[in-house]
Design goal:
144 residues, mainly alpha
Length: 144
């Protein structure tokens, strides 16, 4: 193995593993955006309603559900906020670039990390749940 292979092969004066570095950076940016999404997405503000109006709205909704039952509201998925779509898109791009870099270049560990960061950004809600379960298991196992 030559020494040029160890420090990143160079072609025409540029490093070959630039794709790996771009994929890793994009994956890191996507995870950072996902981590701070609550800082950028504000819940919709509800207008203050009097008790009388709230009562009549509740009564109307109960009567309409009994008269004409609608489909279950949980069956319809919520639309994603554009901010979420941006970091999911960046995560998908990082996974694609990381996979391409993994197949083309020699730095497979950094490419694998880029793919992992992209996948974490794509499934951020599930990653947070998994981390929470792992921390709970760790705390419970250290107590006994």
């Amino acid at each position: 193995m030559s020494s040029s292979h160890l420090d990143g092969e160079r072609k025409f004066g540029r490093r070959v593993n630039w794709l790996v570095e771009i994929a890793f950076t994009l994956g890191f940016i996507a995870v950072a955006m996902a981590a701070f999404e609550l800082s950028f997405i504000e819940p919709p503000k509800k207008e203050p309603v009097s008790k009388k109006e709230a009562f009549w709205e509740a009564a109307k909704s109960i009567l309409t559900k009994k008269v004409s039952p609608e489909q279950d509201e949980r069956a319809v998925p919520k639309a994603k906020h554009p901010y979420q779509l941006v970091y999911i898109g960046i995560g998908v791009f990082a996974v694609g670039l990381g996979t391409l870099a993994w197949t083309r270049f020699s730095r497979s560990r950094l490419a694998a990390a880029a793919v992992a960061l992209g996948l974490i950004a794509i499934a951020w809600d599930w990653a947070v749940i998994g981390i929470g379960i792992a921390v709970a298991i760790f705390i419970l196992s250290s107590l006994s």
